[in-house]
Automatic annotation (TrEMBL), chain B:
It comes from the Eukaryota. This is Peptidase S24/S26A/S26B/S26C. The lineage of its organism: Eukaryota, Fungi, Dikarya, Ascomycota, Saccharomycotina.
Amino acid sequence: MATRGFRYYTTSASKFIRVVAAIHLLHTYVFEFAITGGLSMLPTLHTVGDHVFLDKYNHRLGRNIKVGDVVVISKPTEEHTRICKRVAAVPGDIVYCDAMPKAPMRPGLSDDLVGLSSSMTNVRTGKYIKIPEGHIWILGDNAMASLDSREYGPVPKALVVGKVLWAEYWGPFDWLPNWPRKVGSNIEATDLKVADLLPSSHSRT
Amino acid sequence: MSSIASRFRLRNARATFSYTSKTLLIGLSWVPVIAYVANHVVWIGVIDGSSMTPTLNPESNGLAKDVALLWKLNAKSYSSYKRGDVIVLRNPRDPESTVVKRIIAFEGEEVRTRFPYPESRVIIPPRHFWVEGDNIHSIDSNTYGPIPIGLVTARVQTIVFPMNRWGSVPKVGGRDPRSAVVGLSNSSYTKST
């Protein structure tokens, strides 16, 4: 009986690694489907079961990112983890970081208490922060239960993995997935500048 | 599918359009594999700039640039780094460019910062590094603060060119961690290089 020789296995292996490398390249630099979970982006994304389409080609490393985009970034305080939040400010903007104490997450979770000053505290102090060049301010839609730039501070744009374009919900008990829905900006970028919001000195007559 | 070598042994092999295009396609199909190796295993890089003088690029003219091996295996794994490792990371202030610096301190350690950092002491957040260039005039963590592991791209361990400095990159250089890190003896990371 003829057996498959050495040449067959080396050829199959070479085809396999070429296909796997091509798919990996596609996933890293063009697009990817990812599964999201957690409460921090309610009501935009479900707690479980949302599959999102990530555009990496246009938005890797924070290229062309605008305020209101939902992006996936590498988590700053943990390796090999990614988080999905919305961009609230881009370089040059000034944000006000609220002073509310953070809602307790799960008890016993020794989580990332980074703090915005050198001391790692559980209470965020209210302060105005100007976003440095090359950084963005991310915020979860469900601000009460979201670990975001209010803890991490401005996040370098190079951590951005991609932008979420569509989400498709396939619930744990559903037979079929739902139709994809567009995840868009709910913030209209306006031309307001900081000067427009400050009291003007010449108007009273 | 026969290999390229066997094609050349065929008596009737000719430079036809179909032969050239097939060979070209097979060649192109190997490009993603080489790209994977270049991004996740090892590649070669030319070091630019003088922030790591005199360890790297000791010549002051811009013509003699060091060439080094960039090891990318386990580049995103925090525990694989030791104090004194020279790493390549994405510039926090410009995501399109990369910088080469040396690791001085790990997460949880307190660092005495240098000008122009606004605070004199800083505790490194989880999974962040404090990096500094060996040159005292470098723009490093003293300007942009601790960097997250997600920004690190590769580690520089071996100089390939020029030949008189061929070999491992020196593990000491720049500020001595014993003067930079407060309480280094209590750190859970390795104390010396």
